[in-house]
Every structure is written in C-alpha cells, then in structure tokens.
Amino acid sequence: MTENPGRASAAHRVYAATKELILNGGLPAGSLISEGEIAERVQVSRTPVREAFLRLEAEELLTLHPKRGAVVAPVPPGEAADVLELRQALEHSAAERIARDGLTAEGEAALRELIARQRELAEAGDVSGFAAADEAFHRGIVEASGNRLAARFYATLGDRQRRMSVSALRPRPHRLRVLADEHQTLLGHLVAGASDDFAAALRVHLVATHGDPGGAGPER
Asked: Which run of H or E residues covers position 160?
C-alpha cells in the first residue's frame, strides 16, 4: 500500500513543529496537549497529528493518554548525568585527536563564527537560540576532530542537549555571556593543542551550567 505523500508531509510538519516546541521550552515538561490543539496550530487534520504524536512518544518526548491527549515527558531520572558523562568523554577524545593532528583553519573559523553568533544571541537574551548555537559549538568540536563515527554518535545527543540547556539557562539568562566567554577559552585550548586543559575547562563549564552529576547544583 502506497503512503499518501500529502499526509506524510503533514505528519512531518506536525512532528517538527511539536518537537521544536518541546526542545525550546515552549511546551514544558508536564504540559497536556490535545490533538485538536496541535491540529489547529499547524493547520492540519487530526490524522497526521496522531502519527506525529506516536513518533514523539517513540522518542520519549511525549506520553500518550487515550481520549485525553498527550503529556510532555520530563527528562528521565539520571539521563542528564548520562548525557554530561558522554559529552565529556567524546569532547575530550576529540580534543586529544585535535592536539595530535591539529585544528584545521576551516574548523577553527566555524567555531569562531558560532561564538560570535552566541554573543549576538546573548545580547538579545535569546535563550532558545543560544541553546541551539551552544549545541552546534560542542558538536562542532567533535566534528573538527575528524572522527566521523564519534561525530555521528554525538549528533544523537543534540535534542537532549538543547532541552537541558534551555531548562538550565531560562532562569539564568545572565549566564549566556559567561558561556560564550567559556567557549572562547575552550577554543583557545584546542588551538594550543592543550587537551588536558580543555578537559578541565570543559568539566567546569558543564558543571557550572548543569550541576555536578555527583550532587552539586548548577552555578547561579
């Protein structure tokens, strides 16, 4: 049976729009949403909404409740610590490879451009936009190492990173400027080939924003 292209396109639009609202905090954890509400927002029928909701449930972003709608799922217990642990391991490994092989001019320019963009977003107080640029910067470090397998795996953490960053930074928008400065420091260590200094600075950077997985909260 051939899938209706129009319906598939509508379902993808609903999926993308709803997912973006969840990731940028427009639909915070615990929010109850209905098929009708989203259908009206995206201007589609309920059928593609149902399909999109099932896809988001599979990604653990929604919990479906028949005849009631869907609830935006909270970040599962322990997931934030797992994400931070993986990020530190992958980025430190990338820094070690960059220290060995060098950072290309293109890679350095791309990271500098992202920092400049972050400074603009910080001045505007755009937490959601900054979170996306923050994720792109850290992913860019792994991509700059040239390890394509690591880069592909790191990219799978992107949605979780953005959601965590929005949650951590929305109550503390003053941190945006500080984070851009810390990114500049991290880039400096990469350029210098100082992978151990990079790893130490990265840990401080992540703990100050997201808290210590061992128990300490984020820096205020």
From this structure: helix 158-169
CA distance 50 to 58: 13
- pTM for this prediction: 0.85
Confidence tier at 95 by pLDDT (50, 70, 90):
very high
Taking only Cα atoms into account, the Rg of the chain, rounded to an integer number of angstroms, comes to: 19
Q: Measure the CA–CA gap between 27 and 14, rounded to whole angstroms.
A: 14
Least Cα distance to 137 among 164, 168, 115, 163 occurs for 115
Query: If DSSP codes are grouped into helix, strand and coil, which group holds residue 173?
Result: coil
The sign one gets for the Cα dihedral 83, 86, 89, 94 is negative
| Chain centroid, CA 149 distance in Å | 19
| Helix, strand and coil in the chain, % to nearest 5 | 70, 5, 25
pLDDT in tens, 61-90: 999 998 888 999 998 878 889 999 999 999
Q: How far apart are CA 163 and CA 147, in angstroms?
A: 25
In angstroms, the Cα distances linking 142 to 88, 119, 168, 208 are 11, 21, 23, 21
